[in-house]
Specification:
Elements: E1 6-10, H1 19-31, E2 34-41, H2 44-48, H3 54-81, E3 86-92, H4 96-107, E4 111-118, E5 125-126, H5 129-137, E6 142-146, E7 156-159, H6 167-187, E8 192-198, H7 203-208, H8 214-235, E9 243-247, H9 250-261, E10 265-269, H10 284-290, E11 295-299
Parallel strand pairs: 1-2, 1-4, 2-3, 4-6, 7-8, 7-10, 8-9, 10-11
Antiparallel strand pairs: 4-5, 6-11
Helix pairs in contact: 4-5, 9-10
Length: 316
């Protein structure tokens, strides 16, 4: 079954240019499928006023929804005129990420595309609380689109976890590589690179154990990671020069390599946990994401279930 045939674009209410919609149209031109431009809106002032009756408040909400629907239609008109199927839906909801996830489930969407804002000076991507909720809790992959032209010959960089002996990590690694290869083949025949980071020797161990040889330890760790990477690349017929096993923290290694390769997108896996139980999206991956300067695609395991209840964090 073809991937990404039912895309949901989370419209940015704060600007007239929509990079996420543009990226969805690009994907549609390569692989087909449907696009839904979706916007949850909410204005607290309409709910608070006591001068309006319930019917008047409802009418005002409908008026705002109609106005925003026409605003999106104006932005998408060029694509619609070109025959690209863009559905438009605006809903009244005070928690954007909940509205988006609910729409994904009800509409059986298989990809969310959302614009990632950029820090003007640092060029780093800035993620809002809504972005983080989607990355953690969305039942389908989330593509964070940077407002930046796709680099000429931009590569796809897949971050894999080579250190874990847990079966779910191996299965997730395989899913990341398989789906990225399928996407690259169908979209733009881009190169697919794999990256794994391994830790440096803890300083306290070298100090506390006089007979400890850091170089032997480092060689052993690197060797384990190289073997794991070799098995993975051979499984998917990836050339060795397209694989990278680097010493250091993932949050440093992955963004640095992405910049060096001029990658168009980094693909990460997450089991969607939060707090100290986070397997990859949590401490490590959130730091990786904070340092990226390109598009990001986050993919969950096959058996991932979105949380039935969401927390009470503030949203942007």
């Amino acid at each position: 079954m073809a991937k990404y045939q039912n895309m949901l674009v989370a419209i940015d209410p704060g600007q007239d240019d929509q990079p996420a919609l543009r990226r969805a149209v690009y994907l549609h031109q390569q692989i087909g499928g449907k696009i839904k431009a979706f916007l949850p809106i909410y204005d607290f002032s309409y709910e608070m006023t006591t001068l309006l009756s319930p019917d008047e408040r409802t009418a005002m909400r409908k008026g705002v929804i109609a106005q925003r629907t026409e605003w999106i239609r104006a932005q998408a008109q060029h694509y619609i005129d070109a025959g690209i199927p863009v559905d438009i839906k605006v809903v009244w909801h005070n928690r954007p990420f909940e509205a988006i996830i609910q729409e994904v489930i009800e509409g059986e969407h298989d990809l969310i595309l959302k614009m990632a804002h950029q820090h003007d000076r640092l060029e780093a991507v800035i993620f809002t609380p809504t972005d983080w909720h989607l990355l953690r809790k969305s039942p389908c992959p989330v593509w964070m689109v940077k407002d930046k032209p796709w680099p000429e010959g931009g590569k796809a960089l897949v971050a894999v976890n080579l250190a874990s002996e847990e079966q779910y990590h191996n299965a997730l690694n395989e899913k990341l590589v398989r789906e990225t290869q399928q996407l690259a083949e169908r979209v733009n025949h881009t190169e697919v690179h794999l990256v794994g980071a391994y830790p440096i020797t803890p300083v306290n161990i070298a100090i506390e154990l006089p007979d400890f040889d850091p170089s032997v330890y480092n060689d052993a760790i690197r060797g384990q990671h190289l073997l794991a990477m070799k098995a993975l690349r051979q499984q998917f017929n990836i050339d060795e020069k397209m694989t990278h096993v680097e010493k250091g923290l993932p949050e440093e290694v992955i963004p640095d390599l992405a910049e060096h390769l001029d990658a168009g997108i980094v693909v990460l896996g997450t089991v969607g946990r939060t707090g100290i139980s986070a397997a990859f999206l949590g401490n490590t991956a959130e730091q990786v994401i904070d340092h990226l300067r390109c598009d990001l695609l986050v993919i969950k395991p096959d058996d991932y279930q979105t949380p039935a209840e969401t927390d009470d964090d503030e949203d942007d």
